[in-house]
Amino acid sequence: MKLQKVLFKLIVPIIAVMLGLLIGGIIMLSSGYDPVLAYTALFNGIFSDSYFIGETVRQMTPLILSGIAVAFAFRTGLFNIGVEGQLLVGWLASVYVGIAVEGLPAFIHVPLAILAGAVAGAIWGFVPGLLKARFRVHEVITTIMLNYVALHVTNSIIRAYLLAPGERTESIQPSASLASPFLQEITNFSRMHYGFIVALLAAALMWYILWKTTAGYELRAVGFNEHASNYAGINVSKNIILSMCISGGFAGVAGAMQGLGTYQYMTINAAFTGVGFDGIAVALLGGNGAIGIVLAALLFGGLKIGALNMQAVAKVPPELITIVIALIIFFVASSYLVHWLRNRINKRGKI
Amino acid sequence: MDYVIEMRNIRKEFPGIVANDNVTLQVEKGEIHALLGENGAGKSTLMNVLFGLYQPEKGEIYVRGEKAEITDPNIANKLGIGMVHQHFMLVENFTVTENIILGQEPIRKGQVDIKKAAKRVEEISSQYGLRVDPYAKIQDITVGMQQRVEILKTLYRGADILIFDEPTAVLTPQEIKELIQILNRLIAEGKSIILITHKLKEIMEVCHRCTVIRRGEGIGTVKVADTNRDELASMMVGREVSFTTEKGLAQPQQSVLEIDNLTVKDSRGISAVNELNLTVRAGEIIGIAGVDGNGQTELIEAITGLRKVSDGTIQLNGKNITNHKPRKVTESGVGHIPQDRHKHGLVLDFSIGENMVLQTYYQQPFSKFKQLKSNKIFNKAKELIDQFDVRTPSVHTEARALSGGNQQKAIIAREVDRSPDLLIAAQPTRGLDVGAIEFIHTKLIEERDANKAVLLVSFELEEVMNVSDRIAVIYEGKIVDIVDPKEISEQELGLLMAGSKQQRTGEM
Question: Percentage of chain B with pLDDT > 70?
Fold first, then answer.
């Protein structure tokens, strides 16, 4: 019974991935590329070298966190479209702490810098939470708008106070870095860093908060039914704000992973990083569950890294993988269609 | 004998349950045929089979003597079967006419000929006595009027077999009277009607014959003229049902709830409760009788902390609880069975187990150091489910999946189990069948006998008369009289509720 349930949950994403790859192949054929060659290159580009595996893990780390940020809000009845902005402020805050604070040992400096990212993201989530709780302003509008505010505010802060040659901040102190010579060495000098441990811990934390604590019970109750929550004496406004803060906090940590792990600094961003928006897709594909999100982030990370090899070997533009990802999302979103087809077939079979 | 509809030995299964088994329904031309059963007995499933929404596993359907394969609702429509759903399927910001013609619009020069359509709607509505304004928007008309639009929709499509799914559930008493006239008019014009209901009074009033389903099984068909309410009830529930609730004399003790000079404003800022005074004592049930909208909802919300009190005081066991937060009120000993169980009573997406601790999840033993103790929660839920006979596949089932009666039992289990000094029950039996009603009334009386104070609010006179020890009549936000149910008739009570005493004292 339990196994059946798990399989049932898996079936929609698996079918969606297969359909996405299949139609991606058809598009390649019609544009004159060889899909077999391309997919072989894609596969090799993920698994053939420990370097690619390391890069995949690096790519997946912030995706897990942004996916969790989206899913956490979603589980409590909110659409946090502002993960991108929360990620940017989290990135800047963690990098700032990484640069400005000196003389700390790594076991204090690293958590402190991550915490700074989380707090900054939480503050960026607090604003739409407050507006929703107090004035019923829809969080989709405010979070989208705050993405732009975050993008330009972080850029201008870097320009005004933290600018180093190369349109970026200085690098962080080694004591704040998540980078690991050991991990780099065993993955053939990829940029893999310790951040994936943080991401996995965060996934476990989301699950724990939502399902194992009274706070999670309240958050979910408010998300499902504000009236009944109010009836049960749960403070609805407080929980809306709290949910946006926690969600923003996860997003901020995603930014910290970029700052303390992958890059060691923050650049001036001409456009959004996209990691925050990808989080929406990851959460959707992962069914808003902790394990699902980790798997979905792994898939997306792998596809993105593998796409580079696909371009090198099969000359297929990496944009095609973006199309495949889009198709996967499309098929997950239309899982309704899959259910409908399944029912239809069952019905036929029985008559 | 030819039947317009004949469903023979229908069986319909869903994964894990048999929703219909061996059900036979035979409807004669020109009759109103009742389909009676408890909540969740399988009435709607059977009608969905007839309407082509489900395919039966076994059994045959004959329409006007001919075997029919109804595989989707369009075929049902073509066969002249129309359905008036309990939850209306109307476009709120379309007009009456636009809603009726939707999908079958008369076209002229590539445009919808709305005038012609409106004329046709008027013709049909005058033929059947269905008063509507063809140009009114759905959002601006009453629920009773919306239902007429639904009926017109089926007639416009040429239906002559009409299925009504719980048509009176959403109507006021006045609208119910009008609906009954409409039903009689329809059969006078040669239509046949299937009426899905669990209200025995309606069946006795309008129906000719009645088919009973119990837990998915066809129990049989009876002529309404040859039967009575008690017999129908026992066919439906499967045992004897008493309509008058058995109870001993009340032994009121000290006062538990004291409301003094209470004024509460409604959402528009108008005083809905107006300098109201009321005392409820331990060991008695006070029934609040009144027409809907006379301040009952606001009064309960004020006591339970869900609405702000503008003036006056509320005391519980001598302690002031005026304007306390809902949780504080609950903790000081108030249980509340809310009027709208879907809106306030349950988190429908939570499991039934999680719903059982909605008021206590943060207390020991259900949580410790802010961590939920799932074992304790689900054990408690299992205990309550057994004790209150909540029928659910498991404690992990979503509350949404339960029938209305079982949802209500779950709420009552949760509220009564905390053994509050004051139990407020607002419309506790709305939409429930006789079996569940009897159960809930018994529980309220048990609470009284356990020396608790019970405040019952109901719009159903019969319920107030049956269960209460004293009746407080509410009119325009004031308690205008307190009467003994044994010394007053329904008519007299009805007059009081309509404000007759108010006028009398006003004249003096």
Answer: 98
Test B326 with A227 for CB contact under 8 angstroms.
no
Closest in A224, A228, A351 to B344, CB measured: A228
Domain count of chain A? Answer: 1
Of B293, B313, B294, residue with least CA distance to B303: B313
Give residue B489's Cα distance to chain centre: 25
CA distance B378 to chain A (A): 14
Which among B346, B348, B361 is the nearest to A217, CB-wise? B361
- B5-237 maps to CATH 3.40.50.300: yes
Residues of B in contact with A351 (CB under 8 A): 55
Order of strands, edge to edge, in the sheet holding B58-63? B66-68, B58-63, B5-14, B17-27, B217-223, B209-214, B32-36, B192-197, B161-165, B81-84
Q: At what angle do helices A236-256 and A83-100 cross, to 10 degrees?
A: 60
Contact A227 B343 (CB under 8 A): yes
Domain boundaries, chain B: 5-237, 243-333+421-508, 342-419
Mutate to test the interface with B, among A212, A217, A339, A346 (most CBs of B within 10 A): A217
The token pair at B387 is 């004790």
- Please give the Cα distance from B67 to B63 (Å, whole number): 6
Beta bridge partners of A179: A193
Min Cα separation B498/chain A (Å): 31
A48 located within any domain: no
pLDDT digits (tens, 9 = 90+) for A231-263: 999 999 999 999 999 999 999 999 999 999 999
What the block records as the tokens of B80 is 């002249």
A302 closest CA partner among A39, A120, A15 = A39
| Domain residue limits at A73 | 61-284
Residue of chain B minimizing CA distance to A76: B349
| Residues of chain B neighbouring A217 (CB-CB closer than 8 A) | 354, 361, 372
Q: Find chain B residues with C-beta within 8 A of A227's C-beta.
A: 343-344
- Chain A residue numbers touching B55 (CB-CB < 8 A): 347, 350-351
Q: Quote the ipTM score.
A: 0.84
Q: Do the chains contact at B347 and A231, CB–CB below 8 Å? A: no
For the stretch B243-267, pLDDT in tens is 777 788 888 889 999 999 999 998 8
Q: Which two tokens stand for residue B347?
A: 């988190």
Of B26-35, B51-60, B330-339, B488-497, the least confident: B488-497
Number of Cβ atoms within 10 Å of the Cβ of B391: 12
Q: How far apart are CA B141 and CA B311, in angstroms?
A: 35
What is the Cα–Cα distance from B272 to B297, expressed in whole angstroms?
Answer: 9
Chain A hits for B362, CB-CB cut-off 8 Å, are 214
| Integer Cα distance of B45 and B213 in angstroms | 11
Q: Chains A, B: CB contacts under 8 A, how many?
A: 67
From chain B, the residues in CB contact with A233 under 8 A are: 325-328, 330, 359
* B507 pLDDT above the threshold of 60: no
Give B144-191 pLDDT, tens digit per residue.
Answer: 889 999 999 999 988 999 999 888 877 777 788 889 999 999 999 899
- Residue A164 resides in a domain: yes
Locate the chain B residue with the closest alpha carbon to A350: B57
Q: How far is CA B94 from the centre of its chain?
A: 27
The CATH class of B243-333+421-508 is: alpha beta
Q: How many other CB atoms are there within 10 angstroms of residue B492's CB atom?
A: 12
Residue A276 lies in a domain: yes
Q: Is the pLDDT confidence value at A343 over 80?
A: no
d(C-alpha B203, C-alpha B211), whole Å:
11
- Smallest CA–CA distance, residue A138 to chain B, in Å, is 21
